[in-house]
Structure formats: structure tokens, C-alpha cells
Amino acid sequence: xxxxxxxxxxxxxxxxxxxxxxxxxxxxxxxxxxxxxxxxxxxxxxxxxxxxxxxxxxxxxxxxxxxxxxxxxxxxxxxxxxxxxxxxxxxxxxxxxxxxxxxxxxxxxxxxxxxxxxxxxxxxxxxxxxxxxxxxxxxxxxxxxxxxxxxxxxxxxxxxxxxxxxxxxxxxxxxxxxxxxxxxxxxxxxxxxxxxxxxxxxxxxxxxxxxxxxxxxxxxxxxxxxxxxxxxxxxxxxxxxxxxxxxxxxxxxxxxxxxxxxxxxxxxxxxxxxxxxxxxxxxxxxxxxxxxxxxxxxxxxxxxxxxxxxxxxxxxxxxxxxxxxxxxxxxxxxxxxxxxxxxxxxxxxxxxxxxxxxxxxxxxxxxxxxxxxxxxxxxxxxxxxxxxxxxxxxxxxxxxxxxxxxxxxxxxxxxxxxxxxxxxxxxxxxxxxxxxxxxxxxxxx
Length: 445
Description:
Number of helices: 5
Largest sheet: 6 strands, mixed
Distance between the termini: 135 Å
Strand content: 25-35%
Number of strands: 22
Order of helices and strands: HEEEEEEHHEEEEEHEEEEEEEEEEEH
Mean pLDDT: 81
């Protein structure tokens, strides 16, 4: 008897029901994963092949660049020199005319003519205005008529006096009559003299009717128009004339700077003064110190000084604010260097000097007077030394440099570098810190 085989169990068709989108979605995901893997492998292979090639190219070009620059830092340098520099005291001033005149009428009358234009530069004695002269011409005529009548009376009295003198000598008339006639002659002489005064007064009024310039200067805006009646007692004037050449500037200096100024002034020195515009950039006048005030202002601790300037170009205008630089000392044959070569940190003042082997050395310096783009070097630098102006950010002791002199550049010294001063503390600066007593303070440079 053969063993009975169990019938094979087949799953029911309902068990093979496919969930919609399940098999298709998983197949697509596998294909995308395979594609990303291939792309990643290709990118890694390309990077590993190209990186060595670029490294080799850079390595091949490095010797060329090194040979071209020799590993040195390009800098712009200037040479220290021997020269002169001035010590100035600075102050803020106001342009003040030496003379200002408000022209007024000295007689009453109608303003008839104006012989100037506003803003004209007039000379002393130029005719400016005319007031109606007719009333004063009439007064002059009346005075002259009165004078003629009184002179006739005086002549007659003198004839009578001569006659009475002869009669008195002959004892024909009493002495009293002759004395009376002598007194009458003196009276007529007084009347004639008063008439002459009236004539002179009328002539003076006629002269006052024509107003002339009392000084050479510039006329301001007209204050009274023609046709108006003006009076000698009017408060306001007819016009204002201001002297502009020469002109003065009144400025102040600190009390601490006063001794050197007074010492030079008392010795008879003519201290030179320069006037600069409000921005202290453009020089607009040169003059000399004229006088000093007689007392110090206790509220500000300053003293007022007056300097006079030639002003033919009219650059100095009345009441204009200017910066004054008063030269009190001229230093000769000192070591000078451009301001741009001087470097500073919190501990020292130094420069980068270029040695003969084209390397730089750090030198601690002491500075003195600074004027314009130049600074006096008291110690640490000698005339002829080559000092680095630009490119100091990459320098340290012993750095090899390629030097280009500032004088060889188009336009000479770079103006933009004249006021540059490095204030960064590099590690090298920290290692070479030192104190310096150079520089200047206050109003003196």
C-alpha cells in the first residue's frame, strides 16, 4: 500500500492581490539609487585625477613666479634729507579792516545824484554823492551882499576917522569925537569879519553838498536812494566804505605760547604770518605780526594779536574766519622725512629702513616738528637713509623688499600716503616696543 501523499496546498488567488503602486514604486527607487551611486563614483574618479594635475601645474608655475619676484615684497620708499623746517603757532582769527567809515551827510537837503555803483573800489577823494546845493548857493549870495554893504560902511568910517584926526590936530574938534569915530571903525571891521565868516560857512555848506570818499576802499550796499531828503542829524549813514588793502586779521594764541611771541616781538623781529582758508588747506594771504593786545582774556586763557596783510587780490574779506600760522622759529639743516614713513603703535614710533642688501630694519626714532608733509627726525635716521612709505603691512625685521623710489613715480610723492600712519600692532611691533618723546602738541607745530 503506497503511502498517501498529501495534496499540495495552493494559495487562494485572492491572496495574490497586489497593492496598487507597491511593486512599481520600489523598482523605480532602486534604479534611482543605482544612478546616484554611479554619478558619485564618477565624480570621485574625476576629482582624484584632476587634483594631482592642477597641483603639478601650480608646482610648475611656482618657480617662475618666485624667480620673477625673488620672494621679495614690493614697496615704495623715500629718502631722508637735510633741510629747513619752521615752527608755527596756529590760531583762529577773523579778518578785520584797518579802517571802516560810515558816510553821513553834514548838511540837510535832497539827495540828487549818486556817482558810484555798489561794490565799487573807490579812491580817496572820489566824488560819491551830491545833495541839492541851491539853498547854500543862495546863502552864499546873501552873505556876499551883506559883506559888500558892511565893507562900504567900513571904508566910509575910516575916511571920517582920517578927517577927524586932522581936525583934532588943529584943535578944531574935541578929542571925544575922534575917539567915537575910531570906535565906529573898529565896529565896522568886526561886522565885516562876521560877514566873511558867513561867506565861509556858505561855501563850506556848498562843499558838504558834494560828498567825497574819505579813504580808499570798497563801497558796500547803498543805504539811501536818490530823491530822499537827508539830514545831518540822521542816525543811519548813506553808505559804508571799508578799507581792504592792506587789511588785518585779529587772532588768538594760547597763554602758553605767549612768552616766545613776546620775546621775538620785543626783540624787533618781524614774525611772518600766513592766513589759510576755513579748511586749513589753501593759503590766501601772507603778512607780518603788527601788534599784541595789552591783556589776556581770563575766560579763555588766550591773547589777541593783530597781523597785517597785503590784499591786492581781495582774497581776505572782512569778517571772514581764517586759520593763522605764525612762524616763531626756523630750524635749519635738520633731518627731514615724509610723514608717510613714520609708523606708530601704542609703545613706540619707528620706521622701516632699507639696508644695502635690500632687506628692511626696524629703527626706533624720535620726532620733532611736523610741517606739511615733512617731519623732523631728531634721532634714529640720518640724511640719505631709504625709508619705506607704502607696503609696510607685510614687513618685519629682515624682510627682503623690491624698492621703488617715490620720486621716480609719475607725479612724485604719492599725496594719498602723506597723511598715512600705521597704528596696527603687528607681532613684530610688539617685540620691538619702545617709548618716544617726539611729536608736538597744542597749537605749536
